[in-house]
Amino acid sequence: MEFASSSSSSSSLSFLKSEPQFRYDVFINFWGEDIGRKLVSHLHSVLLQAKVNTLIKEENLQGMELEEHMRAIAASKIAIIVFSKSYTESTCCLLQLQKIIECQETFGQIVLPIFYEIDPLDLRDQKDDCGKALEEAAHKIYSGEQLEHALLMWSRALTKAAGISGWDVRDLRHDAELVEQIVGRVQTLLGYADLPITEFPVGLDSQVEKLIRCIENHSTRVCMIGIWGMGGSGKTTIAKAIYNRIYRLFIGKSFFENIRQVWNRVFRRRVPLQEKLLYDVLKSKVEVESVGMGRTMIQNVLSRKKLLIVLDDVNEFDQLENICGNREWFGQGTVIIITTRNVDVLNRLKVDYVYKMDDMNENESLELFSWHAFREAKPRKDFNELARNIVAYCGGLPLALNVLGYFLYKKRVEECESVLETLKRIPMDEVQEILRISFDGLWNDTEKDIFLDLCCFFIGKERGYVTEILNGCRLHADIGISVLIERGLIKVKKNNKLAMHPLLRDMGREIIRQSSPEEPGKRSRLWFQDNVIDVLKENSGTEATQGLSLKLHSTNRGSFKAHAFKEMKRLRLLQLDHVHLTGDYGYFSKELIWICWQGFRSKYIPKNFPMENVIAIDLKHSHLQLIWKTPQDLKWLKFLNLSHSKFLIETPDFSGLPSLEKLILKDCPSLCEVHESIGDLRNLLLINLKDCTSLSNLPKEVYKLKSLRTFILSGCLKIDILEEDIAQIKSLITLVAESTAVKQVPFSIVISKSIGYISLRGFEGLSTSIFPSIIRSWMSPTLNPQSFVSPFCMDMENNNWRDLAPLHSSLANLRSILVQGDTEFQLSNEVKTILVEYGVNFTESRISKHHLRFSLIGVGSYNEFLNTLSNSVSEGLSSSESCDVSLPGDNYPYWLANVGEGHSVCFNVPQDCDMKGMALCVVYLSTPEIVATECLTSVLVVNYTKCTLHMHRHGRVISFNDEDWHGIMSNLGSGDKVEIFVTFGHGLVVKNTALYLICGESNDLEKEPVE
């Protein structure tokens, strides 16, 4: 039977429609005018009983034309040829034989010859009666050159078939024995046996469908798909489910399970893997003498075969390169699926698509756990709250839900509660063993140290911040963090924050705990509150301790002695939130790199606190009045955060902080003075003085900073930004100065070539000035600026407008800018009014459909979709008989389509996906002389929810770069209402604008403020 018809799949599996498309398992070729007919009839009957979809000449091909015979042969995986003494008398058999040999040579069709009372040598040599019969058969239908060609082709086909290993009836006692052997061989070659998968496949079908569509979308000559995720996430289960769904559609198949384990067991030898692949496809043992010979054999034997190959749990590229390192080794339509915890191996292999495993959502997690724990889809009422707590603990990891659900089957509520509390301290061994494989597979101790530091101290911290700190610990975190991401051990979430699955975090912490289960002071890192308190009270810390974190509540009055740190001479990471410490701070380690001490209670930092190697100091919510009494020489310090320090009066002398990059003094209401030495900081990138309400002025030296990129002054009610001062900061990208004493918009910032984000809300003249000026300068760059540019500010006393010609000229050259507005109405009204007024046509022109054209603008990760989209739009335009346009619609999961009439398209940012990129399709009318690719192009992204207008301008219709994409995405959040406008110069009429959002797996789109 045909697999596609029996499957429950709703997918068309169109990626398998390239030649060959198998509809039959076996085709039997024979001549039925002799005693071989009885054998064939018996064989056919037994094959059908064995559920082998078989096509036979006499019964299945009656009424078919010759071409249909040929198509039937090409749609069969196996061809059985029954040679008899009169075989060469049949022109039909000979034509079919010629097609069979052709199929064997082109796509590797399996040929099984049966020599029924005829010597294979007679067929090979075609002498005597056999040769005469062959000539007579050819004369029946051919003459002249065709006759000679047919004899040549048939003779060649007979010779080749006679050389294939098969069955010689003369060697067997009776036909029944022969039929039994043939059917057994056919069943072995077909190998129709589903792989066992999970008993409770919750959420599996939708993921399998999604991956099959991914395979379909990447239907290249040989399609390679990677499934990437952490241990226990269900990669193998999905791979098996896909295999079961589609394996009948391939001529050969191989499923390598647990390659990592096999690799280690055979001492990292590649040959056994090559031998297994060849055996699985050929169904006969093959000895491979060397890796090089194995590669040659794979290429020679498999290059014409359409195969399904699944390589499960790959962890090194070496495991792949000698099995599937070259697509040319396999036949057209081959699909190779690779599961791995290490995405780097997929990138090196250059797979067509990487499918990242998601954690199960709460509902699916609860259902999966319930099936294992209660044998039903929902928890019992008395278990409802507890079940949800257990599901939350498992964090959507299928392995943990399976193991824990099975373990708690038939247990009482009290027992389950006890188990959960225990697991929070000591994780379950069966889950830990699977997860630890990824940790043990890290290349060196440096990567392991980075992972353990992240587990205990840096989850939720910004990647760049953590990288600098760990680099200071000589851990080479630039590379190390990338490796951990590739291995699926950590993730990078919104605003570049590091995240980790809770069970991986617990696994890392358990590794540390097991190093000294009974004596916490001998562990390398301390994070569990009870253990830390005991160590500090008992002075049991040792030189083994490299990191310590104690986070108490702000109302806690816990007090400890500094002497407790005396023996922790290798301490490099210290976090003491709301901890009161008495005694000599000189006991702290000189190796300290990171100090995070929220709620620091002293009025100033003691002079003997050893900070000479510190890279980051975070003393938010401190009681500091002065940071230190005398200037300090901290040459490695890069981050200084004193936010929410209510009593801080002045900043320190910065002359001893040459490496400082980020100065964060947010919400320090008593701060009155910024030290003039701030101008000496040649590496300073960020100053955040938000809500420093007592600060009335800044030293002139601030404006001389050559590296400053972000300047935040919002809420500094007494500060005004002077034109001549701010103009000096040539590197400034972001200026946020809301609710300040600013009386006029600084023109020098607006026209700066570096600026990318300006927010000056609270200035009354902004909403009626910046938007019109920038947009108008782009829409009509050749007009006289004095004739239309509204002023940014006005000298109210003299009632004189400022000369804005230089401003207009600079705006016309601006590439990208983001401006904050006040209300949705103001944004919508301003943009549409100006677009109508300056160059955008909203009415349809009477231009022939032959002048209907389109342009595609790609942003972010769009390449693999743009060609498909371009072809689809081209077909739609060429088939249109009028100017009506039918653009491609929704094609989830690859893109989400939104189509608008005219020059704009509206959409809501999706809630449940991470946008990886977007493609804009603009259909327009033009004259033959002018096309959009020759015109100035403007793209305006209006976020009505956040009241921002992001404007991009290009000299030609080209794809945006990654920097543009990140800029756009940083101002789009889940659920935001957005409209995108696309405009061309030269008066081109835009008919339709379509937006295709290219989605990923996460929904972390929100922009977070700088702390």
Automatic annotation (TrEMBL):
GO terms for biological process: defense response; signal transduction. Keywords: Leucine-rich repeat, Repeat. Residues 22-190 form the TIR domain. It comes from the Eukaryota. Pfam families: NB-ARC, TIR, WHD_ROQ1. One of its GO terms (molecular function) is ADP binding. SUPFAM superfamilies: L domain-like, P-loop containing nucleoside triphosphate hydrolases, Toll/Interleukin receptor TIR domain. PANTHER family: LEUCINE-RICH REPEAT-CONTAINING PROTEIN (PTHR11017), RESISTANCE PROTEIN (TIR-NBS-LRR CLASS), PUTATIVE-RELATED (PTHR11017:SF560). This is TIR domain-containing protein. It comes from Phaseolus vulgaris (Kidney bean).
